[in-house]
Amino acid sequence: MKAIEVCPSTLMPGFTGYSPRAVKMLFDGVVVSPILDIDFESERDQQQVMENMNNMSISGAQEKFSAVIDNGIIRLSHEGEQSTYILKPAPFNLSLSTRKQIPANEHLTMQIATQVYGIRTAVNGLCFSSSGQPVYITKRFDVTGGIKDCSQEDFAAILKMTEEGGDSNFKYNGNYAQIADAIRKIIPAWMPQMEQFFRMVVFDYLFANEDAHMKNFSLVNRGGEYFLAPAYDLINTCVHIQSGSDFGLKGGLSPDIETSDVYDRTLHPCRLDFERFAERIGLPKKRSDMVLNMFMEIPQETYALIDHSFLNDKMKRMYKRVIEERRVRFVRKSE
Questions:
Q1: Is the separation of the CB atoms in 231 and 110 below 8 Å?
Q2: Domains along the chain?
Q3: What average pLDDT does this structure show over 285-291?
């Protein structure tokens, strides 16, 4: 296993384990080892892995495992035990050549979202299997003090999108304006939540998350009050596979807005398209401009986080190239 030289959560250099900030945010003050006693891909641990997978109820295509902290050790939860964390190792799909880089990619993208762009995200980090492979870990935001205290409903369910008719890709249907309309309808004080949602949509485009589908946006119901759930499943998908679309939803931003001449000419949106989207979902221009201005340049802090990340050197170069290409598209002037 490669020596740990940066915090596996905050990516702050100078740490051989979790930094004090990570201990506080991710583990509620408990000092935790970043090393698991399990290898998700070893035959020795397969029965335990499969039993835990069968107990997981959280949806998604990538394998997820429920976990708890036990005397400073991250372990898989037992049947009937309330999990407080979710583990995501490299996908088991061996056809994806860069699959072992996916946990580090998701961790990096989530850290950039919160540290650089102020997006509220599920608290997260990396831990490492017994063979040294990075495993993404995220703290469940629907569990507090070991008790599930709220419900979570994704927008595929809210908008009543199902596999009816055998459409297994139903979560990619629709457009982002549909989510915005639901936010306005369900959340009384919707404006701050809408600004957060808008920031997430712009981030997903600039950081090439082409898997930002209906199930990757959710509402949390806590005591009868609805809130936009923290961002989760943020990842630069383009360094692994090209989907052929700039957005996770087939309908893009909205069918109700006129696309820019840049979009019509290149098939890629620019800032003007997001300005029109912001107006469509009810954001004041002053607020939308503040968000959009953040993405006109790539801050040095973003490059520092990429350099400190657990991606290999080739993937770091690819990650930088992809976001630089997206920024160039974004800042193009419409005639």
A1: yes
A2: 20-144 (no CATH), 148-331 (1.10.1070)
A3: 98
